[in-house]
Amino acid sequence: MPAAELFMERLLGSLHSKAVPKVLNKGEFLLRAGEIERNLYYIESGAVRAFYLSEFEEQTIRLGYEGSIINSLASFLKGTPSEFYLEPIRKTKLLVISKESFFEVVEESEESRQQYSRLLELLITQLIEREIDLLTTSPIERLNRVLLRSPHLFRHIPLKYIASYLRMKPETLSRIRKS
Amino acid sequence: MKIPTNQLIDQLLQATEKSSAAVRAFSQLDSRTLNFRMHPDSWSMLECIEHLNLYGDFYLPEMEKQLLKAKRTEMVHDFKPGLIGNYFANLMKVNNGKMKKMQSPKDKNPSNSKLSITSIDRFLKQQELLKSLLMEGRNCDLMKIKTGISLTKLIRLQLGDTFRFFVYHIERHVYQAEQVLQSYKREYQTVVSPVLSETNE
After folding, report:
1. Which residues pair with B147 in a beta bridge?
2. What is the C-alpha separation between B102 and B89, in angstroms, rounded?
């Protein structure tokens, strides 16, 4: 098993002792822009979106569903105010793990620290993939790139949020999907 | 009426900052207060703000587009309102707490749409953009630059009038939101005060 996945196993294994369960409904923000992110959220059921609010729209930048971990990463790592909002898309059950607990897991052993480094490398390459998404002109190509990474996205997330993530109108997305 | 461009911009910047400050204070209120409405068909505080956002969605990009196209002038002229522009701007104005009632166009009516606190955050971002557009306008001929309006394609207004209309329109609905807040407080007190007076006796 790759090191990054081993680290995730280790982290998830420690969730039960270190995490606090929480249930939130749509409209109850996990985090608002301007606040400082002090947690990681493991999604037990439901779905969460991270979005950036501009003068004119809410731009979805990340989507998380059952079994994934989400937070406002830059704020979490640097302790600076978050640029992003985190909001459940529907009723969502979460396990909340604090920054302190998270780094306890990281610092457990030399092996764990190395696995954490691999995880960060994985995250960086994922962010570069996302950057290429955003630079891809063709809407069809943008959709294909995302489906390659997350084939089951449409099963978990309503179309309008996927459209926002892909920077296209919901109408455009549903037209492309049909063809 | 004739007014030096700098003076007009200063007035509008001041009014804009005042509206921002008022709405920034709203963001401390709970969602029950923000969603309270006086009558079933009147607007909540959030709806007043979202109405302004919908106007901003049209006017801010339009004003920015025209500003970017325009030449910058070394010599800034005085500004004189146009006939129609002046009419629209004054129509929006709140005078000693009084304003002319009017119906909002359907596409700018946020009534009963699901709103959250992001309406307030978005408004404050729009206000920042507005301020930078106003400052950009200092070095432009506010009479020469024309902008389209949301009601009809037949009329174009001088940018100076659009600025005035837009800023006064914001003042108007921020004032309206403040009125809603006052009536919420009154409503809340009428529920609470009888209980209080009983315990006092």
Report:
1. B157
2. 14
> Cα torsion at A148, A58, A19, B31 (round to 10°)?
-150
Q: Determine the Cα–Cα distance for residues B158 and B193; give it in Å rounded to an integer.
A: 52
Of B60, B116, B117, the CB nearest to A55: B60
- For B126, the closest of A33, A55, A85 (CB atoms) is A55
- Distance set, CA B8 to CA A42, A68, B55, B133 (Å): 53, 54, 21, 13
- Measured between beta carbons, the chain A residues lying within 8 angstroms of B63 are none
Q: A3-172 architecture in CATH? A: Sandwich (2.60)
Q: What is the pTM of this model?
A: 0.85
What CATH number is attached to the domain comprising B29? 1.20.120.450
Q: Where are the domains of chain A?
A: 3-172
Q: Give me the domain span that covers residue B158.
A: 3-200
Question: In Å, how far is B126's CA from the nearest CA of chain A?
Answer: 5
Amino acid B191: pLDDT: 56
Task: Please identify which residue in the block is written with the tokens 């998830």.
Answer: A12
Helix A110-135 to helix A3-18 angle (10° resolution) is: 110
Q: How many domains does chain B have?
A: 1
Report CB contact under 8 Å: A85, B125: no
Spatial separation of the C-alpha atoms in residues B166 and B19, rounded to whole Å: 12
Gyration radius (Cα) of chain B, Å: 19
* Mean pLDDT for back-to-back runs of 10 residues, chain B (201 residues): 92 98 95 91 94 96 95 83 89 80 82 83 97 95 91 89 96 96 85 47 39
Answer whether B114 touches A (CB < 8 Å). yes
Q: What is the DSSP letter of A39?
A: E
Contacting A residues, span 125-144, partner chain B, CB-CB under 8 Å: none
- Whether residue A81 contacts residue A88, with contact meaning beta carbons closer than 8 Å, is answered with no
Q: Comparing C-alpha atoms, which of A89, A94, A111 is closest to residue A156?
A: A89
Q: What is the distance between the alpha carbons of residues B19 and B12, in angstroms, rounded to a whole number?
A: 11
